[in-house]
Design a protein that fits this description.
Number of strands: 3
Largest sheet: 3 strands, parallel
Shape: globular
Length: about 190
């Protein structure tokens, strides 16, 4: 009996990626389609393809037959494929900016993902980061041998290259001696 339900790998993915869909694209050598599929949910697949603890693989139902699919490796491959492209394919489908700007506290993975998804909906954003460089714990807490700085920098550059995403470093929102949020927005 056939039952239509979410594959266990998709259900276990913290970013909600459509894993089954992009694996099928890779199987058919449609790497750009696979990359664009990941970008619907995850703006930095080269990063997550290196640092994710891959609960999708633990949940993979292939393990009952032989071994789980190396999903994180496929994600890394597609992310690196996307970084190597001459032009960001997401730009062509972006809506124009709607004139509204959202302030985001922190340029870690959550703040960067927020800025990305807002931009895909037409909103500009200003991301305020307390550290001197964006990346948050991706930069400060993960060793470079695990996540090379050039990969993180390339993913961040890809995001800011979409237009409408500004990152201001060295500003800790709400800290004594720092300007108030409404002063920063001007």
């Amino acid at each position: 009996m056939y039952r239509d339900k979410t594959p266990p790998c998709n259900h276990a993915c913290p970013t909600g990626e459509q894993i089954q869909k992009y694996l099928d694209y890779v199987k058919h050598d449609r790497y750009l389609d696979g990359y664009l599929t990941i970008l619907q949910d995850n703006p930095m697949p080269s990063v997550t393809g290196r640092v994710c603890y891959h609960p999708c693989e633990t949940a993979c139902n292939r393990a009952a037959h032989d071994e789980p699919i190396g999903i994180r490796g496929v994600e890394r491959f597609l992310g690196d494929f996307g970084l190597a492209l001459d032009e960001n394919p997401v730009i062509a489908d972006l809506p124009p900016l709607n004139g509204r700007t959202v302030a985001i506290a922190g340029a870690g993975p959550g703040g960067l993902a927020c800025a990305y998804h807002l931009r895909r909906r037409g909103y500009a954003s200003v991301v305020f980061e307390a550290l001197d460089r964006p990346g948050g714990m991706l930069r400060a807490g993960i060793p470079a041998w695990h996540l090379p700085e050039q990969v993180l920098d390339a993913e961040i550059a890809k995001l800011t290259g979409l237009g409408g995403i500004e990152i201001r470093c060295g500003i800790r929102i709400g800290a004594p001696g720092q300007p108030a949020l409404d002063e920063l927005a001007s």
